[in-house]
Amino acid sequence: MEGNSFQKISRSGKFIIIQLSKKNKYLVLHLRMTGQIIYTDKEKIIVGGHSVENNQFDLPHRHTHLIIYFQDQSQLFYNDQRQFGFWQVVNAEELQKIKDRLGVNPLSPKFNLFGLKKLLEHRKGNIKSFLLNQKYIAGLGNIYTDESLFHAHILSFRKVNTLTAKDIKKLYKSIKDILNLSIKYRGTTFNNYVDAKGHKGKFTEFLKVYKKEGQKCFGCHKGIIQKVKIIGRGIRYCSYCQK
Q1: pLDDT at position 48, please?
Q2: Per-residue pLDDT at 115
Q3: pLDDT tens digits, residue range 24-41?
Q4: CATH: 3.40.50.150, 3.20.190.10, 3.40.50.2000, 3.40.190.10. Which one for 6-100?
Q5: Integer Cα distance of 212 and 224 in angstroms
Q6: DSSP string, 176-221
Q7: Quick one: pLDDT at residue 142?
Q8: Terminus of the chain with fewer CB atoms < 10 Å: N or C?
């Protein structure tokens, strides 16, 4: 990294990709659950990812695992309380291998109804597990799969091979609608996420099932939102309106 510079920043699924000035070198990182990036210079502090309390700006601290020093005296700190995230310098071939392990970006033109139907062909597991699998669709997480399935009126643990063409069409539209609405309101914040401008996400105001267990269903006003665990992940759903 020494003597290098950042040229371009992009994303693939949940991976952040930084193109470096030295030929054929890239910095790949993933924040996972509690990863946090803090950029500081003489005028400002910018926090992205896991949020911080005011008393945590005394940097570095015990959760700081990486510091990048820039020529203008600014610094980039990477903190990770649970240490699930990672940073790695790779070449173009290694970067392509990472991308090859990831599925289609659900907000890209490549993600279309025909493509989703092809991805679902011959699958036998439940639809929630499929949507969380990054090798099929890259970037969907637990919150947005629950919300998309609720929006499409599809039960999360329904078997993929039982979905009709009508179901798949509704699911495709729901994924697009939910993700675009979430981006419009800067994501979902409960207590630990801020964007690069330090803003909390306001999509919590639009959640219908995630963390709503025990409450009356917002959609049908008849069912009660329930929560079960499958493959180690919590699933929220309404058994009355999701079939």
Answers
A1: 78
A2: 94
A3: 999 999 998 788 899 999
A4: 3.20.190.10
A5: 9
A6: HHHHHHHHHTT-B-SSSEE-TTSPPPBGGGG-SSTT-TTSBPTTTS
A7: 87
A8: C
Q: Using a pLDDT cut of 90, give the percent of the chain over it.
A: 63
| pTM assigned to the model | 0.80
Q: Which CATH number fits domain 113-192+202-237: 3.90.1600.10, 2.40.70.10, 1.10.8.50, 1.20.1260.10?
A: 1.10.8.50
pLDDT confidence tier of residue 131, bands split at 50, 70 and 90: very high
Would you say residue 197 has pLDDT above 70?
no
